[in-house]
Structures are given as structure tokens and as C-alpha cells.
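Section 5.1 Outputs to date
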Amino acid sequence: MAEKFSSVEEYLDSFPPDVRRALEELRSAILGAVDGAQESISYNIPTVRVDGRPVVHYAGWKQHLSLYPVPAGDEDLARELGPYVAGKGTLKFPLDQPIPRDLVARIAKQLSTLAST
């Protein structure tokens, strides 16, 4: 049975150091872009909420990080996200490449705006 996490820190602690560092970088980019961000665990992965509403989820894997959902409605952003789209609603960032912090921040900001409307 999969481990159940009660906090984001507990989730992060479950990973090897290299994956944890990448997750913390992703987390930092998201939290820096979302005003009023609150963290929780939902679907057993870290979730960033604003005013109690989920904005973005992220997860660590053996060879990549995932970010959910994929924002819609911005064609320029969609083109930039193309290399990272890995199925409906999922972005994958390979661990052997730098985290595109600016892109992640733009995604989080857009999702935050969409969640507040």
C-alpha cells in the first residue's frame, strides 16, 4: 500500500536528495508566483491552494517532476509548454534538465488567476 502523506514536508522527505532538491525548486517557483498560496496534500501529492481552492498540484517521480493541470486558453503559453506536455492535463519536467522556473511561475500565476474567477 502506498504511503499516505499528511504534510508537504513529509512528502518531500520521502524522496532521495536529488529529487527533493528539484521538487523544492519547483515548489519555490510556484509559491513565488501565487499570491496568498496555501499548501496542502490532496490526492496524496502537494497542492497549492488560494482561498481554499486548488490551483496547482505537483509530484516527484524517479526521472521527472509532474505539474497538474495544464492551463488552457493561452496559445503562446501552449506552444512553450509543448515539449513538456505528457498527456491530458500533465506536464513533465525531466530531472536531468534544469527546471524552467520562469515557465513554471507563469503557469502557476495563470492557474491562480483562472481559479479566482
